[in-house]
Amino acid sequence: MARTFKIGIFDDEEKFISSVRTLQEQQYPIHEVYTPYPVNEVFHLLKRNTRLPTAAYFFGLAGIIATLAFLYYTSVISWPIVYGGKPFNSFPSFIVVTIVLTILVVTILSLAVFSGRSKLYPGRENTVFDSRATDNKFIIVMDTEILNQPMSGRAADIMKAEGAIEIIDKEIENVNT
Amino acid sequence: MKEQLQVSTRFKTVCLILAAAGAGTFAAGLFSDRETAWAAYLVTNYYFFSLSMGGVFFYVIQNITQSGWSSAFKRVPEAMMAYMPFAAVFFLLLYFGTSHIYRWSLPEVIAGDELLQNRTAYLNVPFFYLRIFICFALWVIFIRILRILSLREDSLDPADQDGIMALFSKSELYSKIFIFILIITFSLSAFDLIMSIDVHWYSTIFAFKNLIAAFLHGVSVMVLIIFILHKRGYFSFLNQYHLHDFARYIFMLSIMWGYFWFAQFMLIWYGNIPEETVYYYLRWQKGWETLFFLEIGLNWAVPFMLLLPVKTSRNMTVITVVIIFLIIGQYVDLFVQVIPGTTGMLRFGLTEAGLFLGYAGLFALVVATALSKARIIGPNHPYLEESMKHKF
């Protein structure tokens, strides 16, 4: 199904941010934005929310418990060896391994959850609204199906007034977002 | 917004009374129990010296990294740095208590100890105090240079951008030189002042642990001073992003403190060499064990747990609570490092409390006086605007 999108292209971060702010204030629904680097302010402006840090905390907790349980099992229950006169459960020496393994667990699980939530997988066809979205430009994408005809025109005016270098309408098959 | 701090006479009187009370209890302690008095003197003296040192570290690192966010608060670490000459005098006064604290200074101990005989070339009383004198002289000189540069910046015309930038890069250059000197001299001082109490015990990471402890607690007290000033109407622009950055500083440093503490402990525990483990053996005896674990809890676990979420690290009350725990934590840390090797008695009596209050009074008086001598915000700092509107 082909959908038409209104795409505003900016080459300046400040203009881009103020444009997003104006559109957001006047309640124009923004479909998606693309920036060459993470822009914190836009994240807040679009009221996007993430629970990934909270999830990462629990991954870490799980990682700590799992690692300590594994170390305890191997060195106390399954195969106890007296090693340099140390007790079987030599907790202080487990801590280094625990830190390293916890970092690994958190990294892998966060990556997996993030990829799963944003539907990223090998071989996924990505929708490129404009080739400059992968370059050094800031892009605002608005869905014209949600915007009606006059609103769409006014949105273009707003972006133009805020300093967009170009505004285009583009019909895209198979939107994958 | 108030620009100049006025120190009220009431505050001055209270501080002076506290300081006098401290001196009084110390004198009384000298008559009743010399060893305890001198050991408490070393702990408290080193405590406030380390706070001042923490201010120095913070200031120097902000200069080197050209940090914008903290530039409005630079007068506070500067004021803490002003305490350094007082610490120097008190450490030189330690001369009269040398024989009560450092066993290596007693001729009869040296005579029966071959290891100490081999070390007398380095560890002898005159050279020890010469080292203290040289280290403190270097620090005081550099602190003075940085302070003069900072005050000169105030007197410049705001339009004179070149002059301001020249001063800015000059203080950066001096900070760079200073930090190299600081790392070496502070390491030597930590080895001398604290580690040589347990004269047969060595730990190469010891100096770094103490350096981070000084940095951590110095920054905490600096943040507390900023909060107090904020409550009294200065720094009215203080926002949640400043709070978050302060909290991150404390959080990061407490993790580093825990890292160094654990690195020292774990290697000794795992290596299990009697010469090394004796240090922790002493600190794991009855009664001391509690303090030993309290130390990790206060200095690492509490800041780590409380400042982990974003919400609490932007909350002034939570940060203040963490700082109060850290203030106690530094005392426990030093107590556990110093006392088992000197008196070996687990007691916190009138002498210790009196000395602590006395030093606290003096420290507060010195910091407040230094703050009142200059404008509380350096108006010509090139990054001042960034600091006032700090946001991320």
Description:
The complex is a heterodimer of chains A (177) and B (392). Chain A is an alpha+beta fold and 177 residues long. Chain A has helices spanning 13-25, 40-45, 52-78, 91-117, 149-162, and strands at 3-10, 32-34, 138-143, 166-172. Chain A is 49% helix and 14% strand. In chain A, helix 1 (13-25) runs antiparallel to helix 5 and helix 3 runs antiparallel to helix 4 (91-117). Chain B has one domain (9-376). Chain B contains 17 helices and no strands. Chain B has helices at 9-32, 34-64, 75-81, 84-93, 98-101, 107-111, 114-119, 125-155, 161-193, 206-231, 240-271, 274-282, 288-306, 310-313, 316-338, 350-372, 384-388. The interface between A and B is small, with 11 and 9 residues.
List keywords for this structure.
heterodimer, A: alpha+beta, Alpha-Beta Plaits, 2 domains, 5 helices, 14% strand, elongated, B: 392 residues, mainly alpha
CATH class division of the largest domain in chain A: Alpha Beta
Secondary structure category of chain B: mainly alpha
Number of helices in the DSSP assignment of chain A: 5
Task: Report strand order across the widest sheet of chain A.
Answer: 2-3-1-4
The counted number of beta strands of chain B is: 0
Mean pLDDT of chain B, as a whole number? 92
Average pLDDT metric of chain A? 87
Order of helices and strands of chain A: EHEHHHEHE
Biggest beta-sheet profile of chain A: 4 strands, antiparallel
* Share in β-strands of chain B: under 5%
Main sheet summary of chain B: none
Rg value of chain A = 25 Å
Strand content of chain A is 5-15%
Query: How would you describe the oligomerization state of the chains in this entry?
Result: heterodimer
Anisotropy-based shape of chain A: elongated
Q: What is the number of E strands of chain A?
A: 4
Low-pLDDT sequence parts of chain A = none
